[in-house]
Amino acid sequence: MEAKGPSESRTTLTDLVLPSETNPLNNLFGGELLARMDRAASIAARRHSRRIVVTASVNHVAFNKAIPLGSVVTVEAAVSRAFKSSMEIFIDVWVEDRESGRRTKANEAIYTFVAVDETGAPIQVPALEPETKIEKERFEAALRRKQLSLVLAGKMKPNEATELKALFEQ
Fold first, then answer.
1. DSSP state, residue 128
2. Sign (positive/negative) of CA torsion 53, 54, 55, 57?
3. Model confidence over 109-140: pLDDT tens digits?
4. Alpha helices, DSSP H only, in 50-161?
5. pLDDT tens per residue, range 8-38
6. Residue 132 to residue 130: CA distance in whole angstroms
7. Other residues' Cβ atoms within 10 Å of the Cβ of residue 155
8. Nearest to 110 by CA among 133, 85, 84, 139
């Protein structure tokens, strides 16, 4: 199975914030943003694996900036690391200023997807070869996040989490 670059999975969804998608403060509902991020991440995972994919976890979400009614929102997702059957997807959310057109980062998230066959059994995915500096940083950090998740779930012993130990042994 040939390795792929993050650019092959990159997915961009752009949409407008409508009144039915806002809270009483006229900002985009967090749940609506989560759904948009999940869709973009799903497409990115599917592009990387060329398989059916399912959301395994939402590992991190940062709601750093409210997204007002009428805003143009762009959700950018790409695979940041591929493991055996799972893929970490890093998502950046951008808001476009209505008057200047300038984009600012509003939010980010990290999702994990698993590729499955037609019976729902996990299936191997291609490796990922990061290309840019930020892709390489996200790739390296993904292994630490995975090890931390496994330790917290009791599926890995802390002394086996070599990437995490390296953070504290410097």
1. B
2. negative
3. 999 999 999 999 999 999 999 999 999 999 99
4. 133-152
5. 999 999 999 999 999 999 999 999 999 999 9
6. 6
7. 8
8. 139
